[in-house]
Design a protein that fits this description.
It comes from Tepidiphilus thermophilus. This is DUF4160 domain-containing protein. It holds the Pfam family DUF4160. By secondary structure, this protein is of the alpha+beta class. The protein has one domain. The protein has 1 helix and 5 strands; from the N terminus they run βββββα. It has a 5-stranded antiparallel sheet with strand order 1-2-3-4-5. β4 and β5 form a beta hairpin. The longest helix is centred in the C-terminal third of the chain and has 26 residues. It is globular. It starts with a strand and ends in a 12-residue tail after the last helix.
Length: 89
């Protein structure tokens, strides 16, 4: 489960071969013991529990980095090394 970014205490991971559970490109975000999955396509919350303010930060980051995230998704589902993505600033 590679960490691809870290900002404002939020850890962003993308799992290898993780296209079965949610069936669409997504990332996993962790913050203070909470974890949620977010769609890369539209930023929607797919599963989990996340503070609203932190979820908005993740969604803004997804919007900014959607192209890079989709490229990493293709690598992840093929079991290849992922590239880190710039944090939200």
């Amino acid at each position: 489960m590679p960490t691809i970014s870290l900002f404002y205490g939020i850890i962003i991971n993308m799992y290898f071969f993780d296209d079965e559970r949610h069936k669409l490109p997504h990332i996993h975000a962790k913050y203070q013991g909470m974890e949620a999955a977010f769609s890369i396509i539209d930023g929607s919350l797919l599963s989990g529990d996340f503070p609203a303010a932190k979820a908005r930060l993740v969604q803004a980051w997804i919007e900014i980095h959607r192209e890079d995230l989709l490229a990493d998704w293709e690598l992840a589902i093929n079991g290849q090394a992922l590239f880190p993505i710039d944090p939200l600033r």
